[in-house]
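Project standup — Tuesday

K.O.: blocked on the structure for the chain from last sprint. Re-posting the sequence here as requested.
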Amino acid sequence: MASPIGPVVGMIGAGQLARMTQQAAIALGVELRVLAGSPDESAARVIADVRLGDYRSLADLRDLAKGCDAVTFDHEHVPTDHVRALAEDGFAVHPGAGALVHAQDKAVMRERLTAIGVPCPPWRRIETAADVAEFAGENGWPVVLKAARGGYDGRGVWICRSAEDATEVLASGVPLMAEGFVPFERELAVLVARSPHGQGVSYPVVETVQRDGICVEVLAPAPDLDPEQAAVAQRIALTIAKELGVTGLLAVEMFATSSGLVVNELAMRPHNSGHWTIDGARTSQYEQHLRAVLDLPLGSPAPTAPVVVMANLLGGDDADIFSRYEHVMAHDPGIKIHFYGKEVRPGRKIGHVTAMGTDLDEVRARARHAAVYLTEGRYT
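H.V.: unblocked you, prediction finished:
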């Protein structure tokens, strides 16, 4: 390869988040290097500087990091000790191990958020059915059991309505924590960015629509959200970023309840709730993440349209996505299609579409039409 002209950012992981980060890197003159497990991974198909290796191997991580101005993540599964070792080697790792662990271990996250006064559901580390029964006696059924580490898109989360349900989950042997079930009205997400020298910005609060634990739609900004509640949500997210020492992007998923906001999950990387920003914000989340990890001034998070709707493309039984482009593009020239170059499998996130406009119902219908036609070949 030719010598880099601009700064080099190493990204551990080569999924669709790294692939979309490459688009922003090109415009900024940033050389993006990725650690991929296979040359067939989403980002490895479109990035010139690909290192093949295992994110669980410290040697492979060190090979990726050599010559990088910053190292960051496409996912949170890198062993915490390895992240710490990279920083001790002198590499600029964003976010660092002390922050990232809060997105890796839900119990550690709950302990820290509770300590700094962030609204959380009642929770407890549990090991036995008796622990769950005691927790339920104090907080009621159902009880939500979560794998302390790992789990995404609804995986690693079990809603238990009885001791028998909990016993079945405990039999898996996975380290677990219990949370009180939150009767939420809707799910919100706040995406913020924070640079190493402490500058922070927040994108508008969005509403995420879930089906079977998977986000299928993002509405930006969250419709009919009270401005004061939106400001509270953004303040909570920025506080978490500061208190945890996050550098780069932080996505804070929240439940909106009749009595206020409750923090559900954290992610420290570009996030599904921010895909809309590629087309719908002055600065995409991917450009913002690169700016942040390189400690550049952060960009404007302002939306480019009054209403933006992102709909995920979930794989079905038919892999022939490209043949349907013609209909979608001709039917609605304003629709933006993003395909991740991934093998189509049922339920797998293979891309997304974005629609923009002024009327929520109309924009939402356009996004849904495009998503359903691309994945299923039928009209909504």
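K.O.: great, moving the ticket to review. The radius of gyration is 21 Å. The chain has a mean pLDDT of 95.
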